[in-house]
Amino acid sequence: MAKDIKTKTKTPKEETKLLKNTEAKKLAKAETKGLKKAETPKLTISKTRAKKIKHSYQVKDPENALLLKLKDGDVVIEMFPDVAPNHVARIKELVRAGFYNGLKFHRVIDGFMAQTGCPYGTGTGGSGQKLKAEFNTRPHKRGTVSMARAMMPDSADSQFFICFADCAWLNGQYTVWGEVTSGMEYVDNIKKGTGPNGAVDNPDEIISMTVIADI
Q1: Contacts of 159 (CB under 8 A, 6+ apart)
Q2: Superfamily of domain 44-214
């Protein structure tokens, strides 16, 4: 049976396909996690060292590439502003505000995907800003980074997932905004879930996310 990527929401007439019977929580803007840039953790390295690190990643466009730090190593994600400009812009805004730092991979299914981006660590929350869908022709394959959403197409917020393998049944239904170009072996090591719908007990966390141009 094909698997879907959903965030937890519930309407009077319908529930999400995967995460049922859980009422979605909404974050008020004032409570949104980590949106004060001044509070964003800073790297304590010299400018010269930072420049060498930045060039070592060999990305096409540092402004549209992310450094995702996991427990086992660094992951580079190159983004696709050509097909998902609004999603890329919002992801960068959240990254620069420190929103993702410390968030959990709350839903991880072996052979399918790892999902994160909920400030509650439960799949029920977001940043409070919904995004209009930017479905595109980029395929969901190993290393693809795409947005989770609820039943409605324009319900993506901050939650995203990274595919462990090809997931062609998701094509055209979720907004693909990036691809892992380095460090996929560290994504493979993210702790898998054994609970319902891939729920993870004591899940791994995002140590930090940074726009590579900012290093």
Answers
A1: 7, 115, 116, 117, 118, 123, 126, 147, 148, 149
A2: Cyclophilin-like (2.40.100.10)
In tens, the pLDDT along 30-89 reads 344 445 444 445 456 677 766 666 667 889 999 999 999 999 999 999 999 999 999 999
Q: DSSP letters along 123-152, please?
A: SS---S--B-----S----TTEEEE-B-SS
The phi, psi pair for 131, rounded to 5°, reads -120, 140
Strands of the sheet with 73-79, listed across from one edge: 107-109, 113-116, 160-163, 144-147, 176-182, 73-79, 65-70, 208-211
Token pair, residue 200, equals 């993870």
- Tokens encoding 6: 């959903």
β-bridge partners, 110: none
Pairing of strands 113-116, 144-147: unpaired
CA distance 77 to 84: 14
Give CA 53 to chain center in angstroms. Answer: 23
Local structure of residue 122 (DSSP, 8 states):
S
Give residue-wise pLDDT tens across range 78-125.
999 999 999 999 999 999 999 999 999 999 999 999 999 999 999 999
Both tokens of residue 119? 């400030």
What is the helix (H) or strand (E) element at residue 15, kind and residue range? none
Q: Are 179 and 155 in contact, with CB atoms under 8 Å apart?
A: no
Helix (H) or strand (E) holding 116: strand 113-116
Which one, of 149, 157, 161, lies nearest residue 115 by Cα? 161
